[in-house]
Amino acid sequence: MSFVTKFENNSMRKSYRTTIPLQVIVEGHTYSAIDWSLTGLALPELQTKLPVGKHIDATLVLSLHEAVISLPVKLLHEYTENGRSGFSFVDLSEKNRSVLRRFIEMAIEGSIDRVDDIVAIYEEPKIETPIQTPVTLQDEEVRTLTTSFRRTAGKYLLFALFVFTVVGILFFYNLRYSYKGSGIVAGNDVKIYTSVNALVDKIYVHEGDQVQKGKPLVDLNDETIAYKLALLEVEKNRKIKLFNAEKEKTAAELAKRKDMIALLTQKVAKKRVYYNNLKKDFNARLITKKALTEAENAYMEAKLQLQKLKMQSSDQSESSAKNFALEIEDIDVKIDYLKKQLTLYRIVAPVDAKVYEVYVTEGQEATKNNPLMLLWTKDTPYIEATVPTKYLSDITTGTKVDIVDSYQNRLFEGEVYKTGNLHEKLQSDVFTVYVKPKDLSYSLKPHQRVQLLFKRDF
């Protein structure tokens, strides 16, 4: 079994948390300890349910290079929650406790291959009573004790030096800086939202990808819009066929009316000529008044029929075709609107940027109020921080600031370029400060938290 010691860096406290592998055998099943110390351990949830307070026998397996040490122990079940079970050691012998302590020390020191150091613990004699006789030291023992004393004294001196150094640093900070706080990076991010609620069909990018303005980012499900468009296209084609048929029908009726108007025009002309001739005969007293009146009535009736036919052709000939044309225009308006809506279902990059975070997955519902992703732009960022109002006189526009980026362990300079409350509901005992870094080539991550050290003006 390979031995791996995991170090978790805690940069804020400048310390390390060490995880040392430990195998535990319970009722024939082997588990890897999630966490352990000299007082107890935590295991993944056991295959066999155990009541809290039960004592069980177990075996601890210490994995060394080219050797394995097994320690029989008794455990007390303390709790089971969140998929883990906690146990405490019961009557752990001093030698077993010393073995576990030495195992931890060796793992941290990286000397896990020194098996003899652990075995030697079991070979040490057990002293039941204090030594009653005087101790006589040999020269070698004196030298050993002297060396040990010097080492111990050196450690205390180093510790004292460390304390004085910390005190000096604190004094330096208080002298150089008026306030130490933290802020959030802003101004170099773009949140991508959707203007419609729909399921995510396809995501074209991944975190870390560089995208150009106009590049597709996300496709939303547009089946409803596409279905409505298809129905409107079918209805439009049907109306166009009816419109064309009505136009043909109207054209035929117009041609027929035109022929009838031509015939009636000729008839009216003949009746007019005949009536005018009779008027001459009546004036010459060749015909009676009755014959002239009948000719006049026949002429006026033909003239009235002609006018009536002309009025019908101008008022009713194209009314049905015009109705169909208006209906087609109305359908075109609806189609144009749906096509514009269709563009909302494809989300594209508004600027050249880098994909910093993606918040949705394919098949998930996207809503108007929740962002789909976050883009990291090349815009110059600024840092927003809240500062107690008691520092209002020390921190003003132009105040120099040391910015600490804990991600890259880098310190760089900045300057306060604006102060004031950004949020109306901000408490009155704090005010908002905006800081811009001087080094514009240094990129700060969106929403990154940084430390701010506001310098005093001397």
What descriptive keywords fit this protein?
single chain, 458 residues, alpha+beta, Thrombin, subunit H, 4 domains, seven-stranded antiparallel beta sheet, 6 helices, disordered N terminus
Order of helices and strands, N to C?
A: EEEEEEEEEHHHEEEEEHHHEEEEEEEEE
The level of helicity is 25-40%
**Multimer state:** single chain
> How much β-strand is present in the residues?
25-35%
| The CATH class of the largest domain | Mainly Beta
Find the CATH topology of the largest domain.
Thrombin, subunit H
- Broad structural category: alpha+beta
What is the level-2 CATH architecture name of the largest domain?
Beta Barrel
Number of strands: 23
Q: Categorize the overall geometry.
A: elongated
What is the CATH superfamily classification of the largest domain? predicted glycosyltransferase like domains
The largest sheet, given as strand count, sense and whether it forms a barrel, is:
7 strands, antiparallel
Q: Whole-Å distance between the termini?
A: 62 Å
Produce a short descriptive summary:
With 458 residues, the chain is an alpha+beta fold. Helices cover 38% and strands 30% of the residues.
Q: How would you describe this protein?
A:
By secondary structure, the chain is an alpha+beta fold. The chain folds into 4 domains: 6-123, Beta Barrel (Thrombin, subunit H), CATH 2.40.10.220; 178-188 and 376-455, Beta Barrel (Elongation Factor Tu (Ef-tu), domain 3); 189-221 and 345-375, Beta Barrel (OB fold (Dihydrolipoamide Acetyltransferase, E2P)); 225-342. Helices cover 38% and strands 30% of the residues. The chain is built from 6 helices and 23 strands. The protein has helices spanning 94-109, 115-123, 139-176, 223-283, 289-315, 319-343, and strands spanning 6-10, 15-19, 23-26, 29-32, 35-36, 40-44, 55-64, 67-81, 84-90, 177-186, 189-192, 198-203, 210-211, 216-220, 346-348, 353-358, 365-366, 373-376, 382-388, 400-405, 410-419, 430-437, 449-455. The strands form 5 sheets. Strands 4-3-7-8-9-6-5 form a 7-stranded antiparallel beta sheet, with no helix packed on it. Strands 10-19-22-21-20-23 form a 6-stranded antiparallel β-barrel. Strands 11-18-16-13 form a 4-stranded antiparallel beta sheet, with no helix packed on it. Strand 20 and strand 21 (410-419) form a beta hairpin. Helix 4 (223-283) packs antiparallel against helix 5. The longest helix has 61 residues, at 223-283. The radius of gyration is 49 Å and the shape is elongated. It starts with 5 loop residues before the first strand and ends with a strand.
